[in-house]
Amino acid sequence: MVVRPDEKPEARQAVISPTRNDPLLHTLSEAVGGPLGEHAAPGIIRSGFWTPERVLVILTVLAAMLGVVLKGYCRVNGWTTPQQFYATCYSDFPVLFKERGLADGVLPFLNANAPFEYPVLTSLIAGLTALLVPGTGNTAARAAGYFDINAVLVAAMWIVAVVATARSNSRRPWDAAMLAVAPGAVLAGFINWDMWPVALLALGIYAFARRQPLWAGVFIGLGAATKLYPVLALGAILLLAVRTGRYRPLWITLGGAGGTWLAVNLPFMLLDPRGWLYFFNFTRDRQAGFSSAYYAWNLVAGRLRWAALDTPAVNTIAAVSFALACLLIAFVSLHAPRRPRLAQLVFLLVAAFILTNKVYSPQYVLWLIPLLALARPRWRDFLVWMAVEALHWWAVWMYLGAITGGGPATNNIDSPYYVGAVLAHMGAVAYLCIRVLMDIYEPSADPVRRSRQDDPQGGDFDRAADALTVRSLARRPASGRETADA
């Protein structure tokens, strides 16, 4: 290695090798020569062209190409029911292109009487990409072109999310491979625009890790203007601010997020108030969605002649359940013997939202993948979860094929099997939450903290001392009485 006089090799950080650090990869590596040698120093010695980021980008491109290939039947034969379900190539892109007037040049918010059931940025992406499709009319060829344009943009956002996740922990860039090659992303990445908020939140976490809370807020605000769930990251920052007593990062991030979200939304709130409110009204009024716990309950209730849950009841149960989950996470953040990491809290909050929400679309799996890569980078748990999600993904389409078009009985699954797949998915997510909680209460088992790091994504909270915990609150009254007695 040639070192320039002005270069300081010791300033470089060693990169954690997955085959050394992860038990499953350590074992699997034996088939190809074993784990990385003890005297190798990745990160300290330059790796030439094949840097972790470049390898991750190539893996992401290959995975994205596979995801598009899986949609091949529908691209050739059209997105028709029930074939699109049986061929497991369903995508919202061509369906919305045809059914929401996008094929005819309708732009959400900019055309009168054009309600669109998505937040502002997603609606604009949907409308503007439709203008890029050559030709006119609502044809199968133009629907395929619309899918292709959005698939390219989704792949680009996938790369952005992978790179941002890799850079969020410079010592563990290879953890981002979970997102780069995730089976869940391959199967569900091209169903909807969810990769956009995934990338924006990943950029927000990366900016926060670099101690740039304003930019973190900007990206979180953009993510919340695309899908609401990135706003949950602010909850995790709030909890860490309370525990450490460092509120400046919270206020800056909150200001950046609120200002950005308002800047995106305010013009359309003024231009088309009814159209802007449509997303919120649609969310409130819609029935329990496929694969939610409430939809599964109603299927079972219908068979057993129990009382089904109507929409107001579902809204109430979902809101109360999520609030209780947030209170539990808040208690954990202040009760744990060591301050939880930011990624752990964000993962728990988003997972709680997914488990209690009245809708779970197959693409929501994307929300958790980069967060798990940062919160608990263990490949065994990740692959088990992906296997369960793949089973659920297949069950969704076979069930939808059965209830929408009949189709051959050999392709259909009955509702009990579908409910079983939903419960398996929920159980897998709950298991991951338990593992993250175990890491919080036993930091020596945390893969990240075992590599001599505190909170790589924590920004100003990294290595911060505690200012407020449950234990300190419990000691205060006792201290006050002792002082008074004295």
Label this structure with key terms.
globular; mainly alpha; disordered C terminus; disordered N terminus; 64% helix
Summarize it.
This protein has 486 residues and is an all-alpha fold. The chain contains 23 helices and no strands.
Radius of gyration: 24 Å
User: Could you name the ranges where pLDDT drops below 50 across 5 or more consecutive residues?
Assistant: 1-11, 479-486
Mind describing the biggest β-sheet?
none
N- to C-terminal distance: 68 Å
Please, what is the average pLDDT?
90
Order of helices and strands: HHHHHHHHHHHHHHHHHHHHHHH
What structural class do helix, strand and pairing data support? mainly alpha
- DSSP E strands, number: 0
Approximately how much helix is present in the residues? 55-70%
The percent range for strand residues is under 5%
Shape: globular
How many alpha or pi helices?
23
Description:
- The structure is a single chain.
- The protein has helices at residues 18-21, 23-28, 52-69, 72-77, 83-86, 92-99, 120-131, 140-167, 177-180, 183-188, 195-209, 213-224, 232-244, 248-271, 273-285, 293-304, 311-335, 342-356, 365-375, 379-405, 415-441, 447-450, 470-485.
- The chain is mainly α and 486 residues long.
- Helix 13 (232-244) packs antiparallel against helix 14, helix 13 (232-244) crosses helix 18 and helix 16 crosses helix 21.
- The protein starts with 17 loop residues before the first helix and ends with a helix.
- Residues 1-11 and 479-486 have low confidence and may be disordered.
